[in-house]
Structures are given as structure tokens and as C-alpha cells.
Design brief:
Elements: H1 8-18, E1 22-30, E2 33-43, E3 49-55, E4 76-77, E5 80-82, H2 90-106, E6 115-121, H3 132-141, E7 148-151, E8 163-165, E9 167-168, E10 170-179, E11 183-184, H4 194-205, E12 220-227, E13 235-236, E14 239-248, H5 254-269, E15 274-279, E16 287-288, H6 293-306, E17 311-313, H7 321-324, E18 330-332, E19 346-348, H8 349-366
Parallel strand pairs: 3-6, 3-7, 7-18, 8-17
Antiparallel strand pairs: 1-2, 2-6, 4-5, 5-19, 9-16, 10-14, 10-15, 11-13, 12-14
The structure holds zinc ion.
């Protein structure tokens, strides 16, 4: 579990070194956060550099007694592999490493041309401060570049091959604070109840943000909490707050979105309400990987192995792809996500075989 590594990266280092990769291990730290172990491995020195990215850390198992198979044993039962991280995403990493090792063995121990790399972090699930962000900088400072990236997050919805994630929505959190005047509830004329103002502003902010774009569903603003914190029955409070999150598409930037919502609030307040926005910093910008030869190559490999034409999707939460996209085009393709983060997280063993074959085919085609 983040930030503990539990020997995962040391194990990976051994397997990759044996397959001929130059393996670098680094621990990144920053005051106020746990130090995190990371790994960068590369075989070949030429371009193009195809990089596979992933994370070895996992979310906690929750109540272990609720699991039918121990969360950290990797038990196989009924042709399924059980365990925290089976799907999200030690399973995906295992498939890529197996595919790369198989490709290298079939090609005299090195890629036909170019390089294969792995960027593996021990913190994607938590604050993600000492992980992929710093790993990417570390590699860039060595003068190395990436050409294309496959991030092995569980991307498929029902069956392996149904979905590639080719972008992610942005995420922005804010708090709306309305200030009134405290007073006795029996004398409302002597007070100014901020809850009335908050309701007005919430209604204005909930209006649709857009109707979607070519590759994205409509943006959505969702209120997550309304807080007054007033334990007294006969008191009009002085302040009311509402927290919200926005998942936004490529029709917005963070700055434009803030301006839009501030304009809406100003219009609804009509000069009568005292309010302020408190925006939290966000490193989760929207991005989209435009369809092109790399997407076509991945989709063709998937189709050849699974018989399915994958859908290009931009749904779901954020991932480390939001950092990688600043370095090279990134697609996410991994296992089926249904059981990730849940009790009895598991994957059919057959899906691991399929995913390995897909990665193997992608590598083959990429260096053909
Ligand atoms: Zn993940």
C-alpha cells in the first residue's frame, strides 16, 4: 500500500535486469510527504523510445475479513487471480514485462530498432507528489525523451479490448463561501441569512457547462458538501459554504472555467450577496490524445488479438497520464476495471494472457 513498496520494485528490477534492461532506482522525497521508491528501466539507446508506465502501489484492502481470498497472497482460484492490485495495476505491469521479455527473446535480446522503457512509480494512488511527476523530470534531465507511452491502467469496461482511454477530463475543486449577518432566528429582518444566498448561487452554478465535445461527455459540476456548522436552533449563521468538484472537458481551461463560474455567480448575486470563491490548486488538466498513427497501431494490435475494435474513451477519474501527456502522446490500455479498489479485486487469468498478447503485438508493430 502507498507509500510502502513491499519489495515490488526490487522484484521488478531483478526481472528487468535479467531481460537486459538498464534499471535505475530512485527515491524521491519532499517535506511533508512520504519518500517514494521509483524505477526507470530502458533497453536500447536509439529513438523511437516506447515507454510503458504504471504504478506498483495499491489502495488499502479495507476490511480484510470481507475478502474471500487474502488481499496480498495472489491466490488463483476458479481461474481468477485475486489480490489488491491484480487489476489496478500490478497485473498490467506483469503483462507488459512478460510481453517485452518475450519480444526481446525472439529478437536476439534487443529491440529491432529504438528503445523500450518502463516508468514505474510507487505512488499513483495517494498524493502522487514523489512519483511519476518527478520520475519524468529525472529522465528528462538525463537528456532522454519518450516518443509514445502506454499506461497500463485498467481501461477496459467489460472485456479486454473494448476500450482505450485516449484522454482524461480535468478536475477542479472549489469552495463557495457566502457571508451574511448573524442574528436571532425570530428577527430575520435584523440578520442576513447566508443560506438563502448560498441556495441562489448553487442553483446558478449548477446550470450546464457545455454539451460535450468530439471526444468528451459534457462537463459536470457536482456539489459535494454544504456546510454551515450551526449547532444552535435559534441562530441565523454568519457564513455558509458549499464545496464542489468539476470534471471538465476540452472545451474549457481551468482559468476560463473559473471566470465562467465567477460570472454566473456575479449575475445571480445581482449585487445583493457577499460571496467568495476559494479555488484549490489542481494539477489535473484536461487532455486528449488525438487519433493518429499510434492510436491506430494500438487499436489494430488490440483487434488482431481480441477481435474487438476498441472504443476511444475519456471517462473516469484522473491518472498519471495527466503528467505523461506533457512529454509524449499517451494511451491507457490495461485490464478490465470492474473490481479495482473493491473487495476481492481479481482478474481472470485468461485476461492476463490476452493483455500480454496485446502488449506483445503493440511492441512488435511499433518496432516493425
Ligand atoms: Zn491505477
Amino acid at each position: 500500500m502507498t507509500p510502502e513498496d513491499g519489495g515490488a520494485l526490487a522484484y521488478l528490477q531483478g526481472v528487468l535486469a535479467k531481460a537486459g534492461f538498464a534499471v535505475h532506482r530512485m527515491t524521491f522525497a519532499e517535506p511533508g510527504t512520504a519518500p517514494i521508491e521509483n524505477l526507470y528501466a530502458r533497453i536500447g539507446t536509439e529513438k523511437p523510445n516506447l515507454v510503458f508506465a504504471g504504478h506498483t502501489d495499491v489502495v488499502p484492502p479495507g476490511d480484510e475479513a470481507a475478502w474471500h481470498h487474502p488481499p496480498f497472497a495472489g491466490e488463483i482460484a476458479g481461474e481468477r487471480l485475486y489480490g489488491r492490485g491484480a487489476v489496478d495495476m500490478k497485473g498490467g505491469i506483469a503483462c507488459f514485462v512478460a510481453a517485452a521479455a518475450d519480444y526481446l527473446a525472439a529478437n536476439g535480446g534487443k529491440p529491432k530498432r529504438g528503445s523500450i522503457s518502463l516508468l514505474i512509480t510507487g505512488d499513483e494512488e495517494s498524493v502522487a507528489v514523489n512519483g511519476t511527476v518527478k520520475l519524468l523530470q529525472w529522465v528528462a534531465e538525463r537528456g532522454e525523451t519518450f516518443d509514445h507511452c502506454i499506461l497500463g491502467e485498467p481501461s477496459n469496461v467489460e472485456t479486454p479490448g473494448d476500450t482505450i482511454k485516449a484522454g482524461r477530463r480535468g478536475s477542479l475543486n472549489g469552495t463557495l463561501i457566502v457571508t451574511g449577518r448573524q442574528g436571532h432566528v425570530a428577527y430575520p429582518d435584523r440578520a442576513d441569512n447566508p443560506i438563502r444566498g448560498l441556495v441562489t448561487l448553487i442553483a446558478a452554478l449548477q446550470a450546464p457547462l457545455d454539451d460535450g465535445s468530439a471526444q468528451f461527455a459534457p462537463s459536470n459540476l457536482e456539489f459535494t458538501s454544504i456546510d454551515v456548522g450551526n449547532p444552535t436552533v435559534n441562530l441565523i449563521p454568519a457564513e455558509a459554504r458549499a464545496r464542489f468538484n468539476i470534471r471538465y472537458n476540452d472545451r474549457h481551461t481551468q482559468a476560463a472555467l473559473k471566470t465562467l463560474l465567477e460570472q454566473r455567480a456575479r449575475a445571480a448575486a445581482a449585487g445583493r450577496l457577499h460571496y467568495a470563491f476559494d479555488w484549490q490548486p489542481s494539477n489535473a488538466d484536461v487532455f486528449v490524445t488525438k487519433p493518429g498513427p499510434f492510436t491506430e497501431l494500438a487499436a489494430a494490435a488490440i483487434a488482431e488479438v481480441t477481435g474487438l475494435k476498441p472504443k476511444l474513451s475519456t471517462t473516469g477519474g484522473t491518472s498519471d497520464a495527466r503528467f505523461i501527456k506533457d512529454y509524449c502522446p499517451v494511451l491507457e490500455f490495461g485490464l478490465v476495471g470492474q473490481t479495482m479498489h473493491s473487495v476481492d479485486e481479481c482478474t481472470p487469468v485468461a485476461d492476463l494472457v490476452t493483455l500480454t498478447a496485446v502488449y506483445r503485438r503493440i511492441i512488435e508493430k511499433y518496432f516493425a
